[in-house]
Structure formats: structure tokens, C-alpha cells
Amino acid sequence: MSGDTEIELHSKRLTDLDIRRLIRASKHFYEEPVTAYLSDVFVHSNSAVGIVYGHIEPGPHGRFADGHFLRTSDIRFATKEGRFWVLTTLNSRYVVASFKRDCGGRASFRSLLQSAQLCRH
After folding, report:
1. pLDDT at 98
2. pLDDT score, position 5
3. Residue 5: inside a domain, yes or no?
4. How far is 115 from 60, CA to CA, in rounded Å?
5. What local confidence, expressed as pLDDT, does residue 10 receive?
6. Is residue 6 situated within a structural domain?
7. Is residue 9 assigned to a domain?
8. Can you give the residue range of the structural domain that contains 33?
9. What is the Cα gyration radius of the chain?
10. Is residue 3 in a domain?
11. CA 30, CA 26: separation in Å to the nearest integer?
């Protein structure tokens, strides 16, 4: 088994569940400002990969515009705030609205938590 992860790079149609989770995540009060919300998240090489929504700085060319794939820098901390995981990198905080269902999203996140001791309460 190789360590490769395959991603389809075409647009993703949000399911009703995805939309509900993103709305709930965006309405929650967080302890510190949030950079963006991520959907369909999985972890690869200590980074989260997902589809970005509500990024505070989408960039001049829309690099972080809604619906685009985003790979975070290395995750430094992971905290649970309410029903959502918040991932802290060097300069950003991302809320995980949902994990990727068919690619081991939640399992890859649990593996990261166990191996790196990233939880902060």
C-alpha cells in the first residue's frame, strides 16, 4: 500500500449535510478569530486538506475563494470548541465543518492526534 492520496480536482457539489454543518460552524462563537471553515477534511503529512469556505483573505486571484481546495500549513494544535474541531497552524485557525467520508478523513485526524499529541484543552 502506498502513502499516496488521490484527490479529484473538479468542483464539489455540497450536500444538504455539508451546508448545514457549514452554517452551524459559522454561527458558533469561537474563543479566538477564525481564518476559514473547511469541509471534507482529511489529514496528510501533518496538514489538513479540505474545501475552504469563508476565508478572511481569499486573495487577489481568489486562491482561497469558497469551494477551492486548501492545504493548511503544519497543524500545531487541535481543540474542540462546541461540536467542532479547530485546527491552529502557525498563522491561522481553521474550523473543521466536516471530515471526508470515503477517504479516511476522521481516521486520518485521529491518527494525527494520537501520534503528535496535538490536543489542547
Report:
1. 93
2. 52
3. no
4. 37
5. 46
6. no
7. no
8. 16-116
9. 14
10. no
11. 9
In angstroms, the CA 67 to CA 53 distance is 6
Q: Which pLDDT value is given to residue 81?
A: 95
d(CA 120, CA 108): 18
Phi-psi region of 63 (alpha: psi -120 to 50; beta: other; left: phi over 0): alpha
Task: Return d(Cα 7, Cα 69) in angstroms, integer.
Answer: 10
Reduced 3-state DSSP string for the chain:
CCCCCCCCCCCCCCCHHHHHHHHHHHHCCCCCCCCEEEEEEEEECCEEEEEEECCCCCCCCCCCCCCCEEECCCCCEEEEECCEEEEECCCCEEEECCECCCCCHHHHHHHHHHHHCCECC
Q: How many domains does the chain have?
A: 1
Work out whether strand 36-44 and strand 69-71 pair parallel, antiparallel, or are unpaired: unpaired
3-state secondary structure of 121: coil
Consecutive 10-residue averages of pLDDT for the chain (121 residues): 51 77 94 95 92 89 87 94 95 94 82 71 46
The three grid cell numbers given for residue 30, joined into one nine-digit string = 469561537
